[in-house]
Amino acid sequence: MERGPAARTILSRKVVRTVAACCAATTAIDPHWRNWFALGGIPALTEPVIDEPFFPTTAILTSRGKTQLELHDRATHAAAEKFGRQVFLRGVVEVSNYCRENCSYCGMRRDNRDLARHRARLDQTAELLVHHRPRAITDVNIQAGEDPVVVRAVVVPLIKILRRQTPLGISVCLGTLSASFYAELKSSGASIYIIKFEVADPAFYARMAAPGSLDERLEHIHLLAATGWKVSSGFIACLPGQNHDALLANFALARKLPLAGCSVSPFIAGDETPLAREPMAGIDLTLNCMAAMRLMRPDWVIPAVSALNLAEPGWGYRRGLRTGANLVTINLTPPDLREDYLLYKRDRFIMTEERILSAIAAEGLRPSKQSLADYYRQNQTPKTESARPAIGLVTALNR
């Protein structure tokens, strides 16, 4: 019997409800499976039919062509709904390349005896940030290898100077420190701590000789959040030997942590590391991870990292902005010190003020007039899937 338009609509709704019920049942078995229907069966991205949190699948992360463009467009739309067309603009100053850790993927690892080590001078760094910083930046990130000496001698007094003499929001990326150091940095005026978990598999984490153990790293993240820090973390995409299941595990871990932001960095085979001859990560998989991160957590601040331009020279950074990234960083480290801050390669692609502002404008974005620190202050503590207090805060974390 021929059905009219109204009858066909009712029937189609019944089919949708039936399929949705099947999806929900299958999700109980495999939570990663649920998004095939929400994303239109992979080939086409549509509005979600099942009202569940987004979680990526291997098919989403490996998408190309039209499907990839639709994924990125949807992520851009999600960012615009939450943050508008504004991106946060911060500066970064790298104050030490001394590091007590020995990460296999980092050129500043302690076993690199060929690296000329340096610590920035407090007076010169303060002069730079107080009187000669780019006018567009609203925040500054103070970054170093894991070096408690520079924290005490330079970072803490620098934060106090910046707090007294500038309106800058202050974030730090200093590695795994003691609880007392965290408290001192916070009382001095910093409010954002960047500490990446890098990889979600404990055994893989150990093979990469990443700082301490994964469990310890996660305890530090919980400690920082529990003591009032806004915490940003992140992971590396396509580490040598990392399969798609391991990559998806990074998302599962990230969404359980008490984070305000999260990054995805492509693996770059760093000079003077044990992984120097490994292939570089593909830009597309990294960008898809960024887009998936935005869809999974529309409220997070997600940076476009400078390594995107190493993965795809000339276009990688702008493509990152098209995946819903909403934080960009101008490198302020003096040129004579940059070469030996060996995160990736000595031939670094430095994101200057001109390059950053040009990329933002080309993508129809504009710098935020509000600092990231102020934005966080005006927003509630980040939600997590299973928040829990830190364990052994004093004994386990005072190293």
Terminal CA distance:
76 Å
- CATH superfamily heading of the largest domain: Aldolase class I
CATH C-level class of the largest domain is Alpha Beta
Q: Strand tally, please?
A: 8
Strand content: 5-15%
Low-pLDDT windows of residues: 1-38, 40-44, 46-50, 386-399
**Shape, please?**
globular
Structural class assignment = alpha/beta
What's the helix and strand layout?
Layout: H1 5-29, H2 35-38, H3 58-61, H4 65-83, E1 86-96, H5 122-131, E2 139-144, H6 148-165, E3 169-173, H7 179-188, E4 192-194, H8 202-207, H9 214-226, E5 230-237, H10 244-254, E6 261-266, H11 283-296, H12 308-311, H13 316-321, E7 327-331, H14 335-338, H15 353-362, E8 366-367, H16 372-377
Parallel strand pairs: 1-2, 1-7, 1-8, 2-3, 3-4, 4-5, 5-6
Helix pairs in contact: 4-11, 5-6, 6-7
List keywords for this structure.
eight-stranded parallel β-sheet; 399 residues; 2 domains; alpha/beta; 16 helices; TIM Barrel
